[in-house]
Amino acid sequence: MKHGSSRKLARSLGFWGALLLGLIIVWASFYNLSNHPDLWWDEAIFSKTAANLVQYGRYAFTEQSPDQLSDFDYRISAGPAIILPVALAYRLLGVGLVQGRLVASLYLVFTFLALFLASRRVFGPTAAFLAVLLALGATDAVHWGRSVLGDVPALGLFLCATWLIIRHLQDDRPWSLFLGGLFLGLAFDAKEFYGLAFLPPLVVLTRRDWGAWRSLARTWFIFLAGVALPLLSYLAFKAVGLGGLLPAAAHFWEQKALLRHEFFTPLTIGRVYCECFRYLLTNPLYLTGLLGSLWLWRQGGLTLSRGLWVGNFLLWSLVYFTAIFWYRFALPALFLATPLAAFVLCRALGRLTAGLAPWSLRWAAAGLLTGVCLWVFPVTGLEYLRTIAQDQGHPPSRLVDYLKKRIPQRTLIETPEYELVFLDNVHRIHLMPAFYIVESGEQGVKLLNPRRQPYNFNQVKADVLILGYFGKSIFAQIYSPAQVARYWRKVAQVDCYDIYVRRSSPLLRPPDTPVRLSAMPPLSVRQSKVQEAHGPDTLPHSFSH
């Protein structure tokens, strides 16, 4: 009876713990979307593409607002699995920052749920609960998942595919295998970073049915049919938009060549970033995941399901080691490490508490587990939770509000800060044309200009120039400080954004009169977020990947 009561209490504690964790994830996904995180380069590209699809019926990014568009622009690296749901949200709720982020937040919750379902199938409910807790607290998934990006949605689709494939491996469910392939294809449609994700399942399925050739052929057909369906749909979508299958295939190859810094492809074989090795091999969560993989292998515990999990973990480690070292690209490896790390912790704590009475064992295990997690693993996610709760004010929106008050409508603005073209529907925004990262490291960034001629931003004849994080870091080699100081006069600063007016522009009055950008009173000095200036000086800043 006492043992039964302890088990009932444990189940009750587990239920309430899971419910609390779920509520925290939902809160972290949806709270304060209008202020955190700041809208930035990639999110602006995908958000504006979805907006153009709704407003102009074109799958295109903007070159100059309102309607100078570039269809199937190579910078649109997220696929229809992201763009189309966001466009649907815009159609139903209106075009806006929060409306698009609602879709991203749904994907974020879905990703944590998929991690739990897949981990529970392979490692049990306790390890699955701990895996989700580690993914929330020890990674930056919450930060990236609240933005309209491809990384977290593709990760969620991939984890859902893994769960479905594992269901087939354990219960022999062909429909689960087909749906698993389908979700892998959708992960590719969300972010083509996942182009190699079909390899570990294919190896495991082949190993299982090796020698039973008819069964193997049937398994391959079911799985690859699921994978192919979203891919062929994406190709057909491009073919319709670009005028044929050959242009669609050529577009795919050219885009991969231009975005090769992100991907492990034949174009990047032999390329290694030391920063990637240092980031993962000094990450306690990743190292514990490696230890879990080794433990399973040494103990002979690599069943087909666990073999698939470890194979995925090793593949995504390799992908990150050969991709650019931006931290969000490590999320697949870190998420796959969480149940492996949880497995190690559960086994270790089980041995430490083996001699305790049931009631004491539960509390001792919980206390030890909490202490180990807080001491060993990074608390990146917890820091983001605090930021989400406290962040007030959205710098890009503050800038747009400032421009609407101070700069006449329809004024042409030149900028490399793509977020402006999504938020500002009053002025004409001319965006810096596409430059692509060839190499990126701690020593600097090398850019590829796909045009034969260098870009001279002064030839645009804009009246206003705005430089933010990107314009003053990566793209300072395009918007050189010397050129800016020669032809432009800095008149204001809003957060990180420097606002310049062309020295020959009629917006500037003679030097002996106050600077006025509109019929409103002269620009005022704002103590907290907005500063006036009359020189090319900029604030110190950091650039986060």
TrEMBL record:
Gene Ontology molecular function terms on file: pentosyltransferase activity
This protein's UniProt keywords:
Cell membrane, Glycosyltransferase, Membrane, Transferase, Transmembrane, Transmembrane helix
Kindly give the membrane topology term recorded for this protein. Multi-pass membrane protein
Single GO BP term: lipopolysaccharide biosynthetic process
Task: List each copy of the Glycosyltransferase RgtA/B/C/D-like domain by range.
Answer: 86-233
Designated name of the protein? Glycosyltransferase RgtA/B/C/D-like domain-containing protein
Where are the membrane-spanning stretches? 12-31, 74-93, 100-117, 148-166, 178-205, 217-237, 277-297, 333-349, 361-382
The organism named in the record is Desulfobacca acetoxidans
Main subcellular localisation: membrane
Q: Which GO terms describe its cellular component?
A: plasma membrane
Q: Where in the cell is it found?
A: Cell membrane
Stored PANTHER family: MANNOSYLTRANSFERASE YKCB-RELATED, MEMBRANE PROTEIN
